[in-house]
Amino acid sequence: VNPPLERLVRRIAAFGLPQRVGFDPMPTARQAMAPVAAEVLDDELWRALLGTVGRARLVGFLQAAIDAGAMPVTEQQRSEAADLHLEWCAALLGLERALLEAVDGLDAAGIDVIVLKGSAHAHLLYPNPSWRMFGDNDLLIRTEAFDDAVRILQAAGYERPVPQARPGFDARFGKGATLRRPVNEELDLHRTLLFGSFGLLIDLDELFASSVTFEVGGRTLQALGPETRLLHACYHAGLGDPIPRLASVRDIAQQLANGSHDPCRVLELARDWQSLVVIARGLTLCRSQLEVDVEGPLADAVAGYVPSRQEWRAVDSYVGDHRRFARKVLATLPYVDGLGAKLAFLRAAVAPRREFAQALGSGGTLVWLRRGCAALTRTRRH
Amino acid sequence: MSRWGREPRVLWRRSGPRVVLLAPGAADLVVLDGVGSLIWQLLGQPIEYEELRDDLASHFASDARRLEDELSAFLRDLEARGALVLEAAEGP
Fold this sequence. Notes:
The complex is a heterodimer of chains A (382) and B (92). Chain A has 382 residues and is an alpha/beta fold. Helices cover 57% and strands 9% of the residues of chain A. With 92 residues, chain B is of the alpha+beta class. Helix content of chain B is 40%, strand content 27%. Chain B is built from three helices and six strands; from the N terminus they run ββββαβααβ. The A-B interface holds A 63, 66-67, 78, 81-82, 85-86, 89-90, 92-94, 96-97, 128-130, 216-219 and B 8-18, 20-22, 24, 29, 31.
């Protein structure tokens, strides 16, 4: 832990945001230029900073701060930051080319595609797409097209390292599949926004019905609409990891600062999808991680929100101290409709195909089962 | 008259003073420094050669004729790399 470094990284992650988000319209130029550092950093701190912003995918914000004169640097530091940013930008262009190829292939088969996060956030949320770095592509497709989409992408050279747990699991309960091509090219194919309880509550038709468009390389692509995009940003930052990437929290704050969403519609969807608790967590993260004030109708609506025991258990299964797949399965069970579906879900989770367990490093179904039981036992002790 | 413009399918990002491009079908990236990235910016909308040359000359307070050779070579090079197109302007 290095407090000066941590403070600097947070300021870089918040660069260009107004002090208050969720209430004001777009930030004024003066607010956006709030300084990140008062003076040039010494070599040791600079090296640590450069390494950290690279790992945290904050290179675009650092470059923007330097360009704006909000981060004093030596000529050597300027050059190092510029080289790192250029390297990232080159990688992003390769990913965007892969994105267009994938979308074209799916489109040719008549499959609707929505681009999630990455390129969509870069082009729709930020003043300049070179602010937002990303490391893979994420596509959302309709459940009924999922198997066809996997086949089409496999024909285009992608491999699926982890097969589905059991036949039919993906389409009924799964989030999607991670596909890979050589040279670290990763594509996450989603049928919903996240695995588990909250993923099952999402109205998937709404994601397509409210989609918007953006352009990459002269091609028009679909992205989530502002309201569902904000909810997705909250799910991703709030339930993805116990300590989320600052870049993911920034996506929430950026969307709040842009103000392109209708707060009433966001709340309506959040109530329907039982995710007010996730919005509350997302806004809390903006305050604590980026040190911005979050105000306005969304903040008012979730202020003092007290989650039910079931909601608390669901959130805890994603980001609690003892989160495990087994625990997430148990927390998800109440959200699976019907006894038959609950049994099918449990069966796939408890006794998946050998290939699935092996791909996740469990050796086989028995080892998988033993590990699951051990995880639950540890959970109960706590 | 014809106008120079960016090939719409080019993927690109601004990176500090530079611009990095990936033209459709190209194996290699193109990195434009200082003047090159300024020209890329001026090509945001299709523009006639003479207008581009004069804009550039006024930016550098230079004689437009002195820029001709280098500017022409630059545009032709990016065209060959698939990053620019020379399109015929619509008639009156």
